[in-house]
Amino acid sequence: xxxxxxxxxxxxxxxxxxxxxxxxxxxxxxxxxxxxxxxxxxxxxxxxxxxxxxxxxxxxxxxxxxxxxxxxxxxxxxxxxxxxxxxxxxxxxxxxxxxxxxxxxxxxxxxxxxxxxxxxxxxxxxxxxxxxxxxxxxxxxxxxxxxxxxxxxxxxxxxxxxxxxxxxxxxxxxxxxxxxxxxxxxxxxxxxxxxxxxxxxxxxxxxxxxxxxxxxxxxxxxxxxxxxxxxxxxxxxxxxxxxxxxxxxxxxxxxxxxxxxxxxxxxxxxxxxxxxxxxxxxxxxxxxxxxxxxxxxxxxxxxxxxxxxxxxxxxxxxxxxxxxxxxxxxxxxxxxxxxxxxxxxxxxxxxxxxxxxxxxxxxxxxxxxxxxxxxxxxxxxxxx
Amino acid sequence: xxxxxxxxxxxxxxxxxxxxxxxxxxxxxxxxxxxxxxxxxxxxxxxxxxxxxxxxxxxxxxxxxxxxxxxxxxxxxxxxxxxxxxxxxxxxxxxxxxxxxxxxxxxxxxxxxxxxxxxxxxxxxxxxxxxxxxxxxxxxxxxxxxxxxxxxxxxxxxxxxxxxxxxxxxxxxxxxxxxxxxxxxxxxxxxxxxxxxxxxxxxxxxxxxxxxxxxxxxxxxxxxxxxxxxxxxxxxxxxxxxxxxxxxxxxxxxxxxxxxxxxxxxxxxxxxxxxxxxxxxxxxxxxxxxxxxxxxxxxxxxxxxxxxxxxxxxxxxxxxxxxxxxxxxxxxxxxxxxxxxxxxxxxxxxxxxxxxxxxxxxxxxxxxxxxxxxxxxxxxxxxxxxxxxxxxxxxxxxxxxx
Lengths: 384, 402
Description:
Chain A is mainly alpha-helical. Chain A is about 65% helix and about 0% strand. The longest helix of chain A has about 35 residues. By secondary structure, chain B is mainly alpha-helical. In chain B, strand 5 and strand 6 form a beta hairpin. Chains A and B meet through helix 3, helix 8, helix 9, helix 13 and helix 15 of A and helix 2, helix 4, helix 5, helix 12 and helix 13 of B.
């Protein structure tokens, strides 16, 4: 019976070609670059802009750039007293190469450089396993990184004990200072931010008012004023005759500022935890401390990890402001080197700033990629 | 036995040690906090008075009335070095507001364009916008300021080149040099106030006409020619008044002086560097906010709009953006506040904003507590006013559910 039904196919039709927009390059271009008249116009405008700027930029950065040289004459044109053809303009990477150690460590004594290098190596060695979700012993790892390492760094970098020579903080500089400032800011601002956030949500009016005033005061003013406050007012508010270290002042300013922002991020996490979690912890008879550390905070902090990383990124960028209170972080030392008579050329500032910008960019971009990675991972675990 | 009593509720409630009384504990904690705060404040105040006495300094705001003694390059109001500190702070505050307002406007426009561009179907445009956002978001704003100030604006033609340029082209009125952009300064004659009044009246009339046109479209389905009428009202009306008053406007042209250009109007490189850096830096954040807002609008809204026959342009303008605005406004508010706060980076390039002027006064007079208190008070009130305004705007835009 069934074999008589002629309108049922007994063999597959041959597979058709995929639509032209999905298969060929021309199709892809027609779909993604030249779909409409306005699209085509925008594509052409963008192409023209790219063709106008990109070759010049590549030429300036790489092809015409000077890669080796002893001093400023390597990057000067004939008119300016150098050897390069008149009208030349390009990056002067020789200057960055010559000043590289200074950009990394400031004026840290050159024979003691193993100290910051060792700390940096330990930092990387402890940070990488902490960032990898699969690596074991997270708790121990975190304690080593957040508690042991700062203490070791303090002893090793400052010296003065165990036969190590004392290195004044005024000699510190460069990327080292940027990293120390932001790392200490992170280490202090996390617990301080948690305390402030809990205080802000507390039932006790005096504690709540104090926390709200602090957070809103700090968040309402620019970081510069907080830094000025730390560098100018702090010595005034301490015992007469004190001589509080300038680096410590900046450290306090950055930490105070970061804590207020961190508090708001963590408050967002606390508010997102359903009320039932608090009530369940209460019903189990947990006291406030146990309720927070075992039930609420682990969930709340997990929720706001992307926000926390964003605060870290902001803080890392903001440490560059210590330049204004005349400290030499990466940006500060690069800027100070513009006045260095050995390397004054018209292209030095641009080269130095591009180098500093690229360094900052690597760190911030890395952090934001990591935050996106964590976000995706947490997202999955929620969907499951 | 005790449990049974507690359950049935008869008999005395179980005795709890005072140590575990939550109310009492709360009081103790609060008193401890208060004592700590009072002690810190007292300690700081005590030390500060001692330190000030040692340095032979007085405290109080009386110093604001003494002579400033320093010059400010960019000033919107009359100011000389003979003016008071108070006047100098006013100049600084105005400069802060000007650069913040200009940056906010530019950053919003650029951010909106880039944010929409990142969602574009055009592959190239989307990639370019992504590159822009990822570059500027991950660089300190201070570095961007230095980049413009030391890296770009300092490489512009020197004033000597400009002098030569003026000799070659005697008619030139607009110059770009490494000391800023020179342009003709308008001089307003008698009766120019009427032109301004006509402009204001034109804008008001245009708003009224738009409201009327919308009502008419809703009632009859016909759309009056809003654009043409509004253009005529806003541009033509003041122009006619301008002609009637006998063109009461002349220009002061910049001409070469002995060391610098004389006359005209100049926009200094400090302002330009700060303005460009703040705008481009903040635009990358605003672009992300806009993108998140647009993606927060369900895709069904776009499909519904296409189903109704709207084209992509009007769909974005009339359907997507109004809904996205509700998601965009709160983070946009904090971004605006960030721009205002970041304008304090002016001190790094010497643009005379509130912090730069305050810093100079602080160094001159040594009244650090007062200056920092003034800074904090002003920035806090600006932040508060901005967030009040944006909250009002947010409430106005919020979905009114019936």
